[in-house]
Every structure is written in structure tokens, then in C-alpha cells.
Amino acid sequence: DAKTTQPTSMDCAEGRAANLPCNHSTISGNEYVYWYRQIHSQGPQYIIHGLKNNETNEMASLIITEDRKSSTLILPHATLRDTAVYYCIVRPGSSNTGKLIFGQGTTLQVKP
Amino acid sequence: DTGVSQDPRHKITKRGQNVTFRCDPISEHNRLYWYRQTLGQGPEFLTYFQNEAQLEKSRLLSDRFSAERPKGSFSTLEIQRTEQGDSAMYLCASSLRTGGSYEQYFGPGTRLTVT
């Protein structure tokens, strides 16, 4: 599975957009980019995933570069409840197991 | 609540004792996963089931660990002869495979403390 690189931590002002980057330069053609987050003392929560095209849902937007070597998760209007560890994961779409390989993630602190 | 549930939420045990955790997945999900998470680290994959079949086990899953999913519904994870190094959060997740991509839904976890 392709490895991802994320900044260790980021701050964001409440109400502003939070842009979380992820590098996955070794991603291959059939691998999806997934984002999960984990709020303190809770299980991880699925946010969004994509293959090539940009994706948007009620939680966030995912922007994938044309060469697919990096992506950005955008929380359009961050709130204090968005403070969490955000994990960027690359996984084959045809994976037999579907297991997720988590890295260290980015700790996002949303400040008032 | 139709999410993934885990029981107990917290468990404190003495070294050498056996413990068992239960996971109830989302009802229509055919895949069930166990992960372990230690402080400051991301979750690590332990094992997964498709229906009742255990199809992959991580090297992290020593002989003291055993998981079952009878009838393809709930799952149990047992740790025998617990060690202090087993102290961690044990997370269960479930998913429904449709096509080439699918999301996993996690439970709240069971926090194990071995004294």
C-alpha cells in the first residue's frame, strides 16, 4: 500500500476553512484516498474518499491533484468540534481485506 | 442506535488474567475488523472477518489472541494470559463491500488496562 505523509499538527481559527494536506507520491492507479478522523477517546470516523475526481459531501471536500500524488481535505467552516486527529489513508480499491493502514495523522486544533 | 457497539467500554485486569471483548457490527455489514491503538499512535490492524470466516490475521495477533465471529454477526476478541503490553484501545469496525470501495464504521472501542 502506498505510504502517506501528513503534517504532525495544524491550527485553524473557528469559522475559517481548514485545509489539511496529504502527500502520497507512490500512489498507484487503483488506489483510493480515504480520510478518517478521530476525536479524542472515540473511534475513527469516516469522512470522505476519492479516486481521481474531487469529491464533496456534507462533512468535507476532497481535492486530489491531477497527478494524484497529493490531496487536500477541506473543512469549509471549522468548528471547535472538528478538533481531532485526521488520517489520510491510501488503499487499493480491489484490496481483498479492505484493512486500513493508519499513519500518525494530523492533529487539527480549532481555536476560538 | 444502529452504529457499531462494543462491550465493555473499559476493562481493568490483572496480568495473567483472560479477557474477552464483544463487538456488534452494523447489521447488514458482512465485514468486521479488529484494530488496536496505543497512546499517541494510529490504529493497527489485527484481523478481519468476512461473514463468519476469519480471512486475515496480523503478525501483531499472537497466539494469546483469538477472535471469532459465529454466524457472521457479532464478534469476540479474547486475550489469554494478559500482559502489560496488551494495554491499549481495542477498536472494532464493520463495512459492507459494494464495488471497489467501501467505508469502515468504527465502534467506540474497549480500553484495556493491564495492571
Question: What does this protein structure show overall?
Answer:
The complex is a heterodimer of chains A (112) and B (115). Chain A has strands at 9-13, 18-23, 31-38, 45-50, 55-56, 61-64, 70-75, 84-92, 106-111. Chain A is an all-beta fold and 112 residues long. In chain B, the strands form two sheets. In chain B, strands 2, 4, 5, 6, 9, 10 and 11 form a seven-stranded mixed β-sheet that branches. A four-stranded antiparallel β-sheet of chain B has the order 1-3-8-7, with no helix packed on it. Helix content of chain B is 0%, strand content 49%. Chain B has 115 residues and is an all-beta fold. Chain B is globular. In chain B, a hairpin with a 2-residue loop joins β5 (44-50) and β6. At the A-B interface, β4 of A face β4, β5, β9 and β10 of B.
Present the secondary structure layout.
The complex is a heterodimer of chains A (about 110) and B (about 120).
Chain A: E1 9-13, E2 18-23, E3 31-38, E4 45-50, E5 55-56, E6 61-64, E7 70-75, E8 84-92, E9 106-111
Parallel strand pairs in A: 1-9
Antiparallel strand pairs in A: 2-7, 3-4, 3-8, 5-6, 6-7, 8-9
Chain B: E1 5-7, E2 10-13, E3 19-24, E4 31-37, E5 44-50, E6 53-57, E7 65-68, E8 75-79, E9 88-95, E10 105-106, E11 110-114
Parallel strand pairs in B: 2-11
Antiparallel strand pairs in B: 1-3, 3-8, 4-5, 4-9, 5-6, 7-8, 9-10, 9-11
